[in-house]
What we know:
Blueprint: E1 8-12, H1 17-28, E2 32-37, H2 40-54, E3 58-62, H3 68-82, E4 87-90, H4 106-134, E5 137-141, H5 144-148, H6 154-174, E6 180-186, H7 191-199, H8 201-209, H9 219-231, E7 242-245
Parallel strand pairs: 1-2, 1-4, 2-3, 4-5, 5-6, 6-7
Amino acid sequence: xxxxxxxxxxxxxxxxxxxxxxxxxxAEEGSNLVITGRTESRLLEAKSKLEQKYGVEVLxxxxxxxxxxxxxxxxxxxxxxxxxxxTLVNNAQVSKSGLPLVExxxxxxxxxxxxxxxxxxxxxxxxxxxxxxxKGSVINFASGAGLFGKLGQASYAAAKEGIRGMSRVAAxxxxxxxxxxNVICPLAMTESLQxxxxxxxxxxxxxxxxxxxGHFADPKNDIGRVCVFLASDDAEYVTGETITLQGGxxxxx
Length: 253
């Protein structure tokens, strides 16, 4: 249970939902954490819970992933606090889900691209020198919205497919430096997904019907455990891959 003891993992959106589940999975394996988000109170609550339960150090930082200077600040504070970085997990994303393509405005599209694609780009670029030192790992989050063309997910899918393309290039460019880059396409039951289910019941029903096991993945035990595996030495041969976790894969690497 200590595969990542002494490591430092940066998780964007780590204060709630999938991000908090990821934080729990990494903390359980002994990794110290940097968690970012836009709501300080939520981050501080997550810090308290994680430190008390798992005995790791957690650095919460309020930051908007669309702000380039904010990302530079996050990375600088990470290195100032811990002196290293082993894993970057680009989890956070905002979008106008459920909105048909023809009803999107440029502002709607910008919301998804800046909070997703640009944020992943900024974090990857700023973290790379430290990941190269640690022979570390990047785990980016994409989505079945792009893989399968989900209705009402135009801007979200565009951002996520952009992240997948960028990740493949980074895996090729950074492989010689010992830095691995992989992508996970998750679908987990979170508070946000529950709201989406309530707001768009028809889309929810179509989505659940397309999942072979008929249920959503668990943020910690399904998605988190796969992320831990990808960040560990056990996956030192894995890079440039897209892993789809659409409904309780049952994987426990």
